[in-house]
Design a protein that fits this description.
The structure holds two protein chains of two kinds. By secondary structure, chain A is of the alpha/beta class. In chain A, 36% of the residues lie in helices and 25% in strands. Chain A folds into two domains: 166 residues, P-loop containing nucleotide triphosphate hydrolases (Rossmann fold, 3-Layer(aba) Sandwich), CATH 3.40.50; 68 residues. In chain A, the strands form two sheets. Chain A has a six-stranded mixed sheet with strand order 6-7-8-3-9-10, sandwiched between helices. A four-stranded antiparallel sheet of chain A has the order 2-1-4-5, covered by helices on one side. In chain A, helix 3 crosses helix 4 and helix 3 runs parallel beside helix 5. Classes of the chains: A alpha/beta, B mainly alpha.
Chain lengths: 244, 322
């Protein structure tokens, strides 16, 4: 087993009386593609927000490569090596694709400027399938292309851990196929990725291990095939709407 | 430092314009110099204001507070320190105030920031009035110097050039890029590793410092400085109106607003001296409704519309599925 990249122990977050994340613990190893799944409102995105520092946890501890990051402001966590995408894609609308990606390369875990930052941005845009579209304004791009730009921006900081918040949501079947291949490619390059996802086919084909949350609690963690056939997990999903 | 052809051209045109402007006092020392001085004053103030408010979209009404602090630095220190040191001191005092205001308010959202900065400017004015009546018997301070209007004009012109160079240097730096990202989406900025709160405070301090220096330079023109004139809230409002009229998307945007507005204001205040406020109010409404991005923003939109058919035919059409 390789070294632990990200370690979450006893994480908790409450909004008033609602406990969105309740005593959740898990480890993600270097180079692993880890799935975070569960019905709507089960606390997955909140968990991701705790890791990236968008929200501060009430209790528990999150460590990245052994260093405690819980409690740090979001920009320090980003510099330390956590990059993320957002559930609803977030663009820098006044800029073109290349500038959007450069934004990820300048201030984060890896700090480039000038020609090296631009070269990296072009390389990453090519990686996500946008070669030759560097100077298209992002507002003129389709939804999947914006998602590609966002992914390239997250990669531009060369993060220790990449957080994908439903990156595949909203894609049509053919786009979904392209998206899954892209994530697979990143994983094969050795990226450590945590993906929150509703698309079960993607989890099945991409992830080695996953964690299932329900009502803020961890209900199961382990190999994907094992976890998805677990009666408790099936019940959690069937009790909800048709996400599964 | 490598410069593009466009930057060299802009620099040459700018240097030429400044050179011509600097010659003006040799031809006229009366009405036109006074008018040009107002234009240069507001060019410096509006550009300094836009340094901060352009990228962040925060509307600051604290201009009068920074300006007044600069003016008072000169009024208080003229017997003890040389004038250039007082200009720097005025800028430093304004920067400190901006830093305090920024630390207290830049985490809150835009609307509260507007109200807070306006309240702050009024508070500073009242505090200065109070202190002055308690500590001395006079309402104001005398500022006697050897400077005539042309000296003040040249100093303001130099300050404007300094503001422009600073703005240009910021725009091409990492700092400026970070501010653009913050202006686009603060959440993305934070998660990309940008310390958004700190950068906004630093920029607000730079902007405030220049406004304070402008106030300091202008102090000798008043001869007698008192709170209602040095901390006049009208300064804050005029700066916002002129900057928005010109447009805050570009560094030179405010300049496009300052020149016509100052000329019109001059005309109005002579012809309709009792109705100036009405004219300012109407102008403000017209700008907000008809030119939300200012004259320069409107021009860029028009240019983009003219260019659009061409750029669409190239890469975008290839990608769009038939």
């Amino acid at each position: 087993m390789t070294a632990v990249a990200l370690s979450v122990s006893g994480a908790r977050k409450a909004f008033g009386g609602l406990v969105a994340v309740n005593d959740v613990s898990f480890d993600v190893h270097e180079g692993e593609l880890f799935g975070l799944i569960g019905p709507n409102g089960s606390g997955k995105t909140t968990m991701l927000n705790l890791i990236s520092g968008a929200l501060k946890s009430d209790a528990g501890e999150i460590r990245l490569s052994g260093t405690r990051i819980s409690g740090l402001p979001a920009h320090r966590i980003a510099r330390f090596g956590v990059a993320r995408t957002f559930q609803l894609v977030r663009m820098l609308p006044s800029m073109d694709a290349e500038r959007n990606v450069i934004a990820g390369a300048v201030f984060g875990h890896q700090r480039l400027w000038g020609a090296p930052a631009r070269d990296l941005a072009r390389e990453l845009l090519a990686l996500v399938g946008l070669r030759g579209r560097e100077h298209v304004p992002v507002v003129a791009m389709t939804y999947i292309d914006q998602k590609r730009v966002e992914l390239a921006r997250a990669l531009a900081s060369n993060p220790r851990v990449l957080l994908l918040d439903e990156w595949l949501a909203g894609l049509n079947p053919s786009e979904l196929h392209i998206g899954i291949q892209l994530i697979d490619k990143l994983s094969r390059q050795g990226r450590t990725i945590i993906m929150v996802e509703h698309v079960m086919d993607a989890i099945r084909s991409l992830c080695g291990r996953c964690l299932v949350m329900n009502s803020g609690r961890k209900i199961k963690e382990g190999d994907v095939s094992e976890v998805l056939s677990d009666p408790q997990v099936v019940e959690a999903y069937l009790g909800d709407d048709d996400d599964a | 430092m490598r410069l593009s052809a466009g930057e060299i051209w802009t620099g040459l045109v700018g240097a030429f314009a400044v050179g011509v402007a600097a010659l003006l006092p040799l031809f006229d020392q009366g009405y036109y110099l006074a008018l040009a001085l107002n234009i240069v004053l507001y060019a410096a103030l509006c550009t300094a204001w836009t340094l901060f408010s352009g990228p962040t979209h925060y509307v600051s009404l604290a201009t009068a507070a920074f300006f007044g602090l600069g003016t008072y630095a000169v009024g208080l220190g003229l017997d003890y320190l040389p004038f250039p040191a007082l200009v720097l001191a005025g800028g430093a005092a304004a920067a400190v105030l901006a830093g305090l205001v920024g630390a207290a308010t830049l985490r809150i959202s835009g609307v509260y920031f507007v109200i807070f900065t306006f309240g702050l400017a009024e508070l500073v004015r009242q505090v200065v009035s109070y202190a002055q009546t308690k500590l001395s018997t006079r309402m104001g301070l005398y500022v006697f110097t050897d400077f005539t209007e042309k000296h003040i004009y040249w100093m303001l012109l130099a300050l404007t050039v300094l503001v422009f160079i600073t703005g240009w240097l910021i725009n091409r730096s990492r700092f400026g890029f970070a501010m653009q990202i913050i202006g686009n989406d603060e959440t993305v900025a934070r998660h990309s590793g940008i310390n958004t709160a700190r950068l906004k405070i630093i920029l607000f301090m730079i902007s405030g410092a220049f406004i304070g220096m402008a106030g300091a330079i202008l102090a000798p023109r008043y001869a007698y400085v008192e709170p209602p004139s040095a901390f006049n809230p009208m300064i804050s409002f005029l700066v916002v109106i002129m900057a928005l009229l010109g447009g805050t998307l570009r560094l030179w945007g405010p300049l496009v607003g300052v020149i016509p507005f100052t000329l019109v204001m001059d005309f109005v205040s002579v012809r309709f001296p009792n109705d100036t406020s009405i004219v300012i109010g109407i102008t403000f409404l017209v700008i907000v409704y008809l030119l939300p991005d200012g004259v320069t923003g409107r021009l860029e939109q028009l240019l983009a519309r003219i260019r659009q058919p061409r750029s669409h035919a190239e890469p975008a059409a290839v990608k769009e599925p038939a």
